[in-house]
Write a structure and sequence with these properties.
By secondary structure, this protein is α/β, with parallel strands linked by helices. It folds into two domains: 224 residues, P-loop containing nucleotide triphosphate hydrolases (Rossmann fold), CATH 3.40.50.300; 233 residues, Rossmann fold, CATH 3.40.50. 51% of the residues lie in helices and 12% in strands. It contains 20 helices and ten strands. The strands form two sheets. A five-stranded parallel beta sheet has the order 2-3-1-4-5, sandwiched between helices. A five-stranded parallel beta sheet has the order 7-8-6-9-10, with helices on both faces. α2 crosses α10, α6 runs antiparallel to α16 and α11 packs parallel to α20.
Length: 489
């Protein structure tokens, strides 16, 4: 792709000036339509060192109200970034609806650099490419405009620019070791960049190669391409997105109605088991930290099923410095204005830590589906998007344990009534709980579909029979311990 690319002829000075004026004015008008239509725009600026990525971004943003954009340089990873999935630091930067985000280098630079330096294997590199394709497709499927630019200069031009920068005291600092290595290994980099761009050039997020020999010509190419992309996004933003078939291996799961709920445990056995299992979990938590394994424990279940008590028995065994519980409620305005998985990406655990979610990303295919908070196309796409999300986390070494806490309708009524009649428990019951109860059958159908479509071999669902809460707690502890022992072998 990069190798076959031919530069367009640069217009003369007068035409360049005229077209720049038109393009700048057009972007200034379009920013208001982007705000009005609530379209998030992500502009990724990649390219050779010294090609002028930062300068180009600086020129483009002059045409946008400062309240409507953010710029982030992604060239250096922090220590925390190193302990998170590789797409984490990019996903958390995605814009809110109606806003622009400009990234000065992004996942292409990071991935190709890791590959050429030998930090990742051929197999892991191929896996990253697939993750990137899914990530970009998920963004565009969820209404994002993703514009990817590669600023291209020749080996000779790059060497010339490096020499000019190094020759002056005030600009020497701008030349990095990576820039010098890149120029020395220009042909090798060209091969890798070309292959990467071919593999990630998709109809919904194509690559645009820009002739970066002249600054104003670079600016014009980016501006005209960007404004054209915005035009298309404005006309397409209400179109439904094609659904994809599941490609991930699934485990067969029973329907909720087929699960026997008569499982119980005696009080003395419960106390003995609880003490033994919590002690073992504490030991495993220390090993997790030492071996830097991230763990995600996700809880879903009926209201009053006992999720809170279940979580408490797990956290009692853990070092408080090494875990965090995330109670998930309705999204805040800044969360609602982004991709629905964004607020979960921002809560992922570092290596060696445990994140426990009291309700999760599965709200997309349950409450959001049944209460009409998203379109049918949105929640139908979500099954595959969630499987992709969990596959990425699994491939990055995370242990994913998903619990559905199951009770019957009569047990829920008894617990609701007890909460309502006990002053110290009344905070646990809301009008919304009663409303949701009226939709029990609809929720049950949605949960059955959710479990059937997202119980993958790498992140299966575990059903906790919780009419006897003590039984469910012991079962959950055993499952967590078994999963951690398996991965720590």
């Amino acid at each position: 792709m990069l190798k076959e690319w031919k530069a367009m002829e640069c217009p003369d000075k007068e035409e360049l000036k005229t077209r720049l004026g038109v393009a700048r004015e057009k972007l200034a008008r379009q920013q208001m339509l982007i705000k009005e239509k609530k379209i998030p725009v992500l502009v990724v600026m990649e390219g050779w060192g010294t090609a002028g990525k930062g300068h180009c971004i600086g020129q483009i943003i002059r045409n946008i109200d400062p309240r409507f954009f953010k710029v982030a340089s992604m060239q250096k990873k922090t220590e925390e970034d190193e302990r998170m999935p590789f797409l984490y630091r990019h996903f958390v930067k995605i814009p809110e609806e109606g806003q622009f985000v400009f990234l000065d280098t992004a996942w292409m630079d990071e991935t190709t650099q890791d590959y050429m330096s030998g930090s990742i294997s051929e197999e892991l590199y191929a896996n990253r490419i697939e993750c990137i394709r899914r990530f970009e497709r998920q963004l565009t499927d969820n209404g994002y405009l993703v514009m990817k630019f590669f600023l291209h200069i020749s080996e000779k031009e790059q060497a010339k620019r490096l020499h000019v920068l190094e020759d002056q005291k005030d600009t020497t600092w701008r030349v990095s070791k990576k820039d010098i290595w890149q120029n020395t290994h220009y042909d090798q980099c060209m091969d890798v960049y070309d292959s990467y761009m071919k593999n990630t050039n998709m109809p919904s997020a194509p690559w645009y190669i820009v002739d970066a020999k002249s600054r104003k010509w670079t600016e014009l190419q980016v501006l005209e391409t960007l404004t054209q992309g915005i035009e298309i996004a404005l006309s397409n933003h209400k179109l439904a997105v094609p659904l994809l078939q599941n490609v991930f291996p699934l485990e067969h799961m029973p329907l909720l109605s087929e699960i026997p709920l008569d499982k119980t445990i005696k009080e003395d056995d419960y106390k003995t088991e609880l003490k033994k299992l919590q002690q073992r979990l504490g030991e495993l938590h220390n090993r997790l930290y030492r071996k830097k394994v991230p763990v995600i424990i996700a809880y879903e279940g009926w209201d009053a099923a006992g999720k809170g008590g279940n979580i408490k028995r797990i956290t009692e065994a853990l070092d408080p410095r090494g875990y965090e519980v995330h109670p998930i409620a309705s999204p805040e305005p800044h969360e609602k204005a982004r991709h629905y998985l964004w607020r979960f990406w921002t809560r992922l655990p570092k290596t060696g830590h445990i994140a426990i979610f009291d309700r999760t990303w599965y709200g997309r295919v349950m409450v959001e589906r049944l209460e009409g908070f998203c379109s049918e196309n949105d929640w139908m796409r979500a099954y595959n998007e969630i499987n992709e999300f969990e596959k990425l986390l699994h491939d990055e070494g995370a242990v994913i344990i998903k619990f559905w806490v199951q009770i019957d309708k009569n047990t829920q009524l008894l617990r609701f009534t007890d909460r309502q009649n006990t002053p110290e428990k009344q905070w646990k019951i809301t009008d919304e709980d009663w409303r949701n109860r009226e939709k029990w059958d609809q929720y049950e159908a949605a949960v059955n579909e959710m479990i059937a479509k997202t119980s993958t071999t790498y992140a299966p669902w575990h059903i906790l029979e919780s009419v006897d809460k003590k039984y469910a707690r012991i079962k959950a502890l055993k499952i967590v311990i078994e999963e951690l022992e398996r991965v720590l072998k």
